[in-house]
Design brief:
This protein is α+β, with helices and mostly antiparallel strands. The chain has helices at about 10-20, 60-70, 120-125, 135-145, 160-165, 170-190, 205-215, 235-260, 270-290, 300-305; strands at about 5-10, 25, 30-40, 40-45, 50-55, 75, 95-100, 110-115, 155-160, 200, 225-230. About 45% of the residues lie in helices and about 20% in strands. Manganese (II) ion binds near residues 98, 99 and 202.
Length: about 300
């Protein structure tokens, strides 16, 4: 289980920590004095003299220093108080699934399910698979290109055109449930007769809601389903799926930019309104429907920009 322990260290303790962990230093993050990595724990000492121990052995490692440092106080947080995954879940063979794009006005919704077992894990880690929110776009595209050859996966792309067609009937959550289920179902067929010990869905709606929409689908995969937010932190399968999704989404926006001759941004802010206005001027609503999720408020805002 991921643990996070924070100690407030004295100057003396900081210097002791520095000496002890120096052989294990890695690149120093902003505002940190050092960061070191030992099996099961990452130790980060900050300029504020907070020292953060994170990882499965954090508690044990921090306890050792608590005994030595007279002036330390401990703040303990459980970083996964809201999830009920089994303790050793990270080492299970798992299908993980994630999606991207549903919050972006322009571009598709992409869902990916990936199967990761212990034979894939060392290479995925070596290739840099981790929380995609901590990776740059360039990293994501590079890592995705490599990991698609490492483990089985299924990727589904719901184009804006298709999205707009089904959107009146399928609300966003129902759409996502349908896509996750379909990606998982297809992947389970690919890897058969292997069956995963768990299927972890990066949670976007309560489990009861997921199951409510699932009941309307064909090819329902009902177990062994697990749900947690920040799923990429709990299994490499979700982290890998997330990276493949993001890479596909980025590529789609790049393709759209080439086709249209200007930058097609992600998100749903003012940049998106301006891009949409340009698309409308070029080809009206029919062209916009090819690139945008037109039920977003951005469509009205784009028309306001044009009619101003
Ligand atoms: Mn997600």
């Amino acid at each position: 289980m991921q643990q996070t322990i924070t100690l407030i260290a004295s100057d003396k303790l900081i210097s002791e920590l520095t000496t002890a962990y120096e052989p294990y230093f890695q690149r120093t993050p902003p505002y940190a004095l050092f960061q070191a990595k030992i099996p099961g724990v990452v130790i980060t000492a900050y300029q504020s003299k907070k020292v953060v121990f994170q990882g499965i052995n954090a508690e044990k490692e921090a306890a050792m220093w608590e005994k030595r440092g007279a002036n330390t106080t401990q703040k303990k947080q459980s970083s996964n108080s809201s999830n009920s995954l089994p303790k050793d879940f990270a080492s299970w063979n798992v299908v993980g699934s994630d999606e991207v794009g549903n919050g972006s006005y322009l571009g598709p919704v992409v869902v990916c399910a990936a199967y990761v077992d212990e034979t894939h894990m060392p290479l995925l880690k070596e290739l840099g698979v981790k929380d995609s929110k901590m990776l740059t776009d360039t990293d994501i595209k590079r890592i995705a290109k490599e990991i698609i050859h490492v483990m089985p996966y299924r990727k589904l792309v719901l184009t804006p055109k298709k999205y707009n067609e089904i959107q009146p009937e399928y609300n966003v959550n129902r759409m996502k449930v349908a896509l996750h289920n379909q990606a998982i179902y297809l992947l389970l067929q690919d890897i058969s007769p292997i069956t995963p010990k768990g299927i972890l869905i990066d949670q976007f709606t309560p489990e009861s809601n997921y199951r409510k929409y699932l009941a309307k689908e064909k090819n329902q995969v009902t177990k062994p389903l697990y749900f947690t937010t920040k799923g990429e932190q709990y299994h490499l399968a979700v982290a890998a799926a997330s990276i493949i999704c993001r890479a596909e989404f980025l590529t789609s926006l790049e393709t759209a930019s080439k086709e249209l001759g200007f930058t097609v941004p992600s998100g749903a802010g003012q940049k998106s309104d301006i891009a949409a206005a340009k698309i409308i001027k070029k080809g009206g609503m029919p062209l916009l429907e090819q690139y945008a999720k037109v039920h977003f408020a951005n469509t009205q805002k784009a028309y306001h920009l044009i009619n101003r």
